[in-house]
Design a protein that fits this description.
It is a single chain. The protein is an all-alpha fold. The protein is built from eleven helices and no strands. The chain is globular and about 60 Å long.
């Protein structure tokens, strides 16, 4: 009996862990949109810091991220336990915020000329080069800014992850959210550390005597800025897809429209299967763009009204 009970217990534990693994994979997939943007934003946050201080700054931000999630995970679990009806509204708010962030990036890109961006960058470089710049204060500001950014993105990640396990037993919710929090923090800041040191590694290798080392170094130097740009582009696109998908699932008419559109495109000869697979994602992304534009318009209007009242 004891042996049988032990085997049954082990089987139950394995079953629970398997469920947690599956749900964690689903949660990771749904939070991928935030992850790409998280990587790009946090890597950008530590630019301008002395090379020998980059890793300590990344570690300081990572510790802040752990603290953020130590607050957010219990808060999310408390919501699930006591006010579960709040999960869907929070998901919609988080999805709308993702769309807003993505649309704001697009608006900035298309409404600001390259000359304006170049001038802003030149002013930033000149500020850093100034002899009276307090690098210690600058580093602290970078860390505070990155931790604030992380709190917002972490809240989005935790809420989205919570939405994927809202109907699971509480113990599994705990394990999934903790797993996502640890995975995202370690994964994001491990990659951020690698990205910010990539150019240093490339520079060091480019000075080596061997031709292979120099070639690898030049490749890393060329890849680092392109990787940052790639992460930013992918992160922005994923924000629309994930944010729009959250809203589509919360709003039945849009969800049904995406399903009907996928069913219609499935009949296209030759490529129907591919079109049916990508159509819901395209619909989600387009919905995300529309929602992002509407939210940005509302935010801009409110800011202008506040500005007029202040005067």
């Amino acid at each position: 009996m004891a042996a049988g009970s032990l085997l049954a217990l082990l089987d139950d534990i394995a079953s629970v862990l398997d469920d947690v693994s599956v749900m964690s994979k689903v949660a990771v997939k749904k939070t991928a949109g935030v992850l790409g943007d998280d990587l790009a934003l946090n890597a950008q946050q530590v630019t301008g810091v002395n090379a020998d201080r980059e890793l300590p700054v990344v570690w300081a931000v990572a510790k802040g991220s752990f603290k953020n999630k130590a607050i957010l995970v219990p808060a999310a679990l408390a919501i699930s336990a006591f006010v579960p009806w709040l999960i869907t509204p929070l998901l919609v708010i988080g999805g709308a915020f993702l769309c807003y962030e993505g649309f704001e990036k697009l608006a900035h890109k298309f409404l600001h000329s390259k000359e304006e961006d170049a001038q802003h960058k030149a002013e930033h470089v000149a500020h850093l080069a100034a002899t009276d710049t307090d690098m210690c204060a600058l580093e602290k500001d970078k860390i505070k800014g990155a931790v604030r950014t992380d709190f917002i993105l972490s809240a989005e990640i935790i809420v989205i992850a919570l939405g994927t396990v809202e109907n699971a037993p509480f113990s599994q919710q705990v394990m999934v959210l903790v797993a996502i929090a640890l995975l995202m923090t370690i994964g994001v800041y491990g990659l951020v550390a690698g990205i910010v040191k990539m150019d240093d590694a490339g520079l060091s290798l480019s000075r080596k005597a061997g031709g292979l080392a120099r070639g690898t170094g030049r490749l890393l130097l060329a890849t680092a800025p392109r990787l940052m740009k790639f992460l930013s582009v992918v992160g922005t696109a994923a924000m629309f897809m994930v944010g729009g998908g959250i809203i589509a699932h919360a709003w039945e008419p849009l969800h049904h429209f995406a399903e009907e559109a996928a069913h219609m495109t499935a009949g296209v000869p030759g490529i129907g299967g591919v079109l049916a697979a990508i159509t819901p994602t395209v619909v989600d992304a387009l919905a995300g763009v529309v929602v992002g534009g509407l939210v940005l318009a509302v935010v801009t209007l409110v800011q202008r009204l506040r500005g007029k009242k202040a005067h």
